[in-house]
Specification:
By secondary structure, this protein is mostly beta strands. The longest helix is centred in the last third of the chain and has 27 residues. Helix content is 13%, strand content 45%. The chain is elongated, with a radius of gyration of 21 Å. The chain has a 6-stranded antiparallel β-barrel with strand order 1-2-3-6-5-4.
Amino acid sequence: MRRETNNHKDYFHAGQKARVEVSLSGDTVFNDGAVVTGIDDTGIRLRLSREKLPEGVLLRRESPLVVRVGVSGNSYRCKCVVLDDHAEEDLRVGVVERVTPEDQREYFRLGTDIPVILFNVTAGTAEESGAAGLRVAAQNSLPRIVNISGGGLRTETEMEMTRDDIVYATFHLPLPEPKIVPVVAQVMHSEELRRNEGIVFSAGLRFMHINERDRDAIVRYVCNEEIKRIRMCRKDFYSVPAG
């Protein structure tokens, strides 16, 4: 019997790209790309991008997982359980909750210039060179964060990234006591820019996994910097001689 709460057939279709997330011990998460191969009234069939799972990752019957998918530029997620031990080519999962939009909280966004280390996990999964997937920034060079908020960031880099790529990013948040912030993010959009120095890729990243204390630190940093800039603008305004 079809669950009345299921609405996954409105969001999933065969051939669609998806992301699968499985919580592991030690507060770690296994992420992998997948392609939807089939849908029925109660579940979804997925083909993972990798043929062999990493050591320690087991997809057993009734294992919980989250499936994410993009539709018309928006991101959605649903909680599922594995229906069979993952031994076949496809992974069969049952949908246990309605498909819902990702967190739509709005955060103030701040223009900035912060060096960042980026590693394109999706490119690594595709067996590209590890060095090709890694970019380390120096001050005033690429890659860099050009704006940031509690929900994500935008980077400029020479490393090509495409929509739905999964990226590890690590950067020093410039607080009075600099804080190292590691995040796992998903590329929501990417565009190629032609500059005097060559081709630059501008990519918007949405945080998928971030320590909430780190998110709070980012929000405080953005708010404090905005206050400083507002005060500076007021100071400059009142210092202008009357004509």
